[in-house]
Amino acid sequence: MIQIAVLGYGTVGSGVVExxxxxxxxxxxxxxxxxxxxxxxxxxDFPGNPIQxxxxxxxxxxxxxxxxxxxxxxxxxVEPAYTFVKRALESGRCVCTSNKELVAKHGPELMxxxxxxxxxxxxxxxxxxxxPIIRPxxxxxxxxxxxxxxxxxxxxxxxxxxxMESDGSSFExxxxxxQERGYAERNPEADVEGxxxxxxxxxxxSLAFGHHVDYEDIYTEGITKITASDIKCAKVxxxxxxxxxxxxxxxxxxxxxxxxxxVDGEDPLYGVNxxxxxxxxxxxxxGDAMFYGSGAGKRPTASAVVADVVDAAKHLNCTVMQKWxxxxxxxxxxxxxxxRYFVRMEGSLTRDIDQVESVFGQVxxxxxxxxxxxxxxxxxxxxxxxxxxxxAKFGTILNRIRVR
Length: 404
Ligand code: HSE
Description:
Layout: E1 2-7, H1 11-22, H2 24-31, E2 35-41, E3 55-56, H3 59-63, E4 68-73, H4 81-90, E5 94-97, H5 100-116, E6 121-122, H6 134-140, E7 146-152, H7 155-167, H8 171-180, H9 189-192, H10 195-209, E8 211-212, E9 219-220, H11 228-237, E10 239-250, E11 253-264, E12 276-283, E13 287-294, H12 298-314, E14 325-328, E15 338-346, H13 349-360, E16 364-367, E17 374-378, E18 382-383, H14 384-391, E19 397-403
Parallel strand pairs: 1-2, 1-4, 2-3, 4-5, 5-6, 8-14, 9-11, 11-19
Antiparallel strand pairs: 7-10, 7-12, 10-11, 12-13, 15-17, 15-18, 15-19, 16-17
Helix pairs in contact: 1-12, 2-12, 4-5, 5-10, 7-8
Bound molecules: L-homoserine.
L-homoserine is lined by residues 129, 154-156, 191, 196, 295-296.
Binding site for L-homoserine: 185
Pfam families: Homoserine_dh, NAD_binding_3
InterPro entries: Asp/hSer_DH_NAD-bd (IPR005106), HDH (IPR016204), HDH_cat (IPR001342), HDH_CS (IPR019811), NAD(P)-bd_dom_sf (IPR036291)
């Protein structure tokens, strides 16, 4: 029997207990032995809930129990999770976590400790909820040299943008709807400002390219400035707006960005709607692959955590995760990244198009019947720096969105 401790009885923690209880027989068969939750660490008590008999309030109880072989960290946030996880790994215990803040900030260090102590630090649930992506990057795609990993990594913002598109809602109304459905937190900043997706692409690109991508070095723009007018224009031009996190190789450098982008019907991310997530990977032998599914929520996330527990149980004395080097990936300056740009401008298409084309060169223009005082266009490809220089010549630009 393998004894495990779960740190945190919140949404994911209670999901982990539910998954282990519901699928006990099949999980034990796959692990090769019985998995038993001995402790659940939480500050709160749960009177009347059967979990109460496993609740402990002091981490020392877990740290001092030699029977505990696997620690599941689902508390979220960097501290005290980091201290608990580091201590667990240093004592040779495996750790399985869903905590993207922890992995993005301390991943290389914690993986190195796991390797030194011949145990495992596993974090499948930190990116894409229930979608398998960490394990494929770590083991299934090792024959390839990857040059892109990108995707829709945040369910809340994808829901908000899909809602704005399907019924013409404003950002504020769609956010309120997402909060009422329990997708968005009361403080939605980490989702809508792109910080959550930023941490996830930092993890995925570090694994895909083997060198550390510091989330603080990633250009990050959220969706708070996207308006119902932008969505109308996107529709006229045949696009949808998605919050996409990208890490892509350009010659011998990489760029990484999180920002809203326009995607057309040919793009595999076009059909990824509502709370779903998708991660697109391109390899030199594989070509394209996309991993799609439930990117958030209690059960999908807990399912990924428990799959890591099974993996840890099967590999108790050897490390299965590849190390990611603490040496930083060579990131290019975002000002040198090339895109086409969608621009929404005040004015009249017939009156102002000549001036627009005298600055931007030939563009793809469109008028939108509902927006009589505005028009929009898509530029040819240019660097961010070139775009900024040209855009500075106009005082009438209402918004610009990159085109994928
Ligand atoms: N807030 C995240 C999302 C939860 O909406 O995708 C999963 O990490």
